[in-house]
Design brief:
This protein has 14 helices and 13 strands. It has a seven-stranded parallel β-sheet with strand order 3-2-1-4-5-6-7, sandwiched between helices. A six-stranded parallel β-sheet has the order 10-9-8-11-12-13, with helices on both faces.
């Protein structure tokens, strides 16, 4: 029986991209015949769809005293893996547990095969002098862990290049993109007027733009609002919906007021899964103008772009971070300079004026979602890589 143990502070019901990542990997590897043990600090951790044969969740004490507490959880994780005869260890993100990998190597040699997952910001944090609020010692340990791991998984070419710059051998880096559940996100006929009424959105929806994101400056929602004002000035009956919450909300609401867009731009709180599916399908174009803010704040991939694509919706996305790996430029949507309002408006206006182009790009997005970005396919490819580590082939 092939065994793998994961140590993570992220798992459902905790929300977020990391939780989705660990959940999808664990359940798909179990379905592929692996015996998967997930050690997690998440209270009430559970597999949303119920028990999956081969997948076991093991509760650890809640996070406390970040690094001292992390060491105790790491030690328990290693001891349990050793007792269970599990030699393959996976850390979905280096921080905080993989900083102890150099110590593990020194004490146990090659007893364990070690794989570390990487995404974006936490890799940028490892560069000396970064603004990441940890001591340089821990950054050095994180860099060392990545360099001595048997394999480093990452989600984009952007992050792979940063790993190489940190001294990680290219031969140890494997790129596996984020995925999407094509059964959960799919094309669906939607009565847009009824949807607007249900969520108290005034007006008649004619051309609908949508963003689903946390409200922080990196997401570029301010630039999108400026683009909407320009499109309105050109006479396009555009409605822009933003689903999410976050620290930038007050500033964005003030901006909407100042630009007199109260009848065109609406910030909505998070919705349930069914509501999210309906909003994706109600959109004519999905918009994510993410940009890099400072040395750490960058989009690692753009999972929402895949979700929109899976629903058959074309996208316009900022050319930054790992986003170019999520969009087939000119096929499933367009990549743009996330700060260039004129370029953004040109691409949006072209799409909004051409229903056939929107249909073709939406169909391509759906095709990519169920093939290249299908979680089952991605996890199967990861499983093959893990099998090679175990067998030495």
């Amino acid at each position: 029986m092939r065994k793998i143990a994961l140590l993570s502070d992220h798992y459902p019901p905790r929300r977020g991209g990391f939780s989705r990542y660990v959940y999808e990997l664990s359940r798909h590897w179990a379905r592929l015949g692996w015996q998967v043990q997930v050690y997690t600090t998440v209270a009430g951790a559970a597999v949303p769809e119920g028990d999956v044969p081969g997948l076991q969740l093991i509760q650890l004490p809640p996070r406390a005293n970040h690094y001292p507490g992390a060491f105790l959880r790491f030690a328990r994780f290693i001891w349990q893996a050793y007792r269970q005869g599990t030699s393959l260890l996976f850390f979905p993100v280096w921080n905080p547990y993989a900083v102890y990998v150099p110590l593990l190597r020194r004490l146990t040699g090659r007893r364990f095969k070690i794989v570390i997952g990487t995404h974006a910001a936490e890799v940028l944090a490892l560069f000396p002098g970064s603004s990441f609020p940890e001591k340089e010692l821990f950054k050095a340990l994180g860099r060392r862990a990545l360099r001595i791991a048997d394999c480093v998984f990452t989600i984009s070419r952007f992050t792979a290049d940063r790993l190489k710059a940190l001294g990680v051998s290219a031969s140890r880096i494997s790129i596996f993109p984020n995925g999407v559940d094509g059964e959960r996100f799919h094309p669906l006929p939607v009565d847009r007027q009824a949807l607007f009424r249900r969520y108290n959105i005034p007006g008649k929806p004619e051309l609908v733009l949508l963003t689903v994101a946390q409200l922080n400056p990196r997401k570029g929602i301010d630039t999108a609002i400026r683009a909407v004002r320009e499109l309105k000035n050109r006479g396009l009956p555009v409605t822009y919906l933003v689903i999410g919450s976050g620290p930038d909300e007050a500033r964005l609401r003030q901006m909407i007021q100042q630009l007199k867009l109260n009848d065109s731009v609406f910030l909505l709180p998070a919705v349930d899964d069914q509501g999210l599916l309906e909003f994706y399908n109600a959109a004519d174009v999905f918009l994510l103008l993410s940009r890099q803010e400072g040395d750490l704040n960058v989009e690692g991939f753009g999972l929402v772009l895949l979700e929109a694509g899976a629903c058959g919706v074309p996208v316009v996305a900022g050319r930054s971070g790992g986003i170019p790996d999520a969009v087939a430029d000119g096929e499933s949507g367009f990549l743009v300079d996330p700060l260039n309002v004129n370029e953004i408006c040109r691409r949006l206006q072209g799409l909004l004026a051409d229903p056939q182009l929107r249909r073709r790009m939406g169909e391509k997005g759906r095709t990519l979602a169920v093939s290249r970005f299908n979680w089952a396919n991605i996890c199967a490819a990861m499983g093959e890589q893990l099998e090679k580590l175990l067998t030495g082939r």
